[in-house]
Backbone:
């Protein structure tokens, strides 16, 4: 259906509807935490807006990234990369990804950001929220992850899903994910209850400096 839209129709029915968004409570809560990266399938700019609202007192400055951008590493905790894997309404000229054929074409094209996500999901701790495990591109990324690929030296990976079914539970077991049956907003609020003093950027010790101390 999306492939049948003209450029003018895409502007009217897609870009204009999901641009200049007001962030909801979940997006605003995101800004309280320190993230390595945020990958999103959403094309709207609500997350950018949440980080740009100074009243949220964000811990990091957001760097929006389009899936067509070349890979750029970020080791500075003052910044968090927000990677739009399906495009962004702030950059409509660079296009969107909505169809199965477009997913497959990007995957075959060895898109750097998709490659990074696939590699990291295989071993790094992740929080997955607001998406179905049945989505074709997420299934591709998770196909590289199994319980034995996640090292015990790192934290667990979580799937936040308020309405899980037996198939969801099965896929979590298959991919080594811990199922958390609640909304992402409630999950972030629960974190605040259990850990009222959240880590700040200046609380992190550089890895090389940490090695100078006895374990």
Residues:
């Amino acid at each position: 259906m999306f492939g049948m839209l003209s450029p003018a129709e895409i502007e009217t029915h897609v870009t204009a509807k999901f641009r200049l968004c007001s962030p909801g409570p979940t997006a605003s809560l995101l800004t309280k935490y320190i993230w390595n990266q945020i990958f999103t399938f959403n094309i709207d700019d609500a997350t950018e807006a949440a980080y740009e609202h100074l009243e949220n007192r964000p811990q990091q400055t957001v760097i929006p990234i389009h899936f067509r951008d070349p890979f750029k590493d970020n080791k500075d905790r003052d910044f968090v990369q927000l990677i739009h894997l399906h495009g962004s309404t702030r950059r409509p000229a660079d296009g969107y990804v909505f169809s199965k054929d477009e997913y497959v074409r990007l995957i075959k094209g060895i898109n750097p950001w998709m490659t990074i996500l696939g590699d990291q999901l295989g071993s790094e701790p992740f929080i997955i929220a607001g998406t179905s495990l049945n989505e074709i591109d997420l299934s591709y990324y998770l196909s590289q992850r199994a319980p034995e690929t996640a090292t015990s030296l790192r934290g667990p990976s979580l799937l936040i899903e308020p309405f899980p079914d037996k198939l969801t539970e099965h896929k979590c077991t298959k991919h080594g994910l811990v199922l958390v049956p609640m909304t992402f907003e409630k999950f972030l609020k629960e974190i605040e209850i259990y850990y009222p003093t959240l880590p700040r950027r200046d609380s992190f010790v550089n890895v090389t400096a940490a090695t100078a101390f006895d374990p």
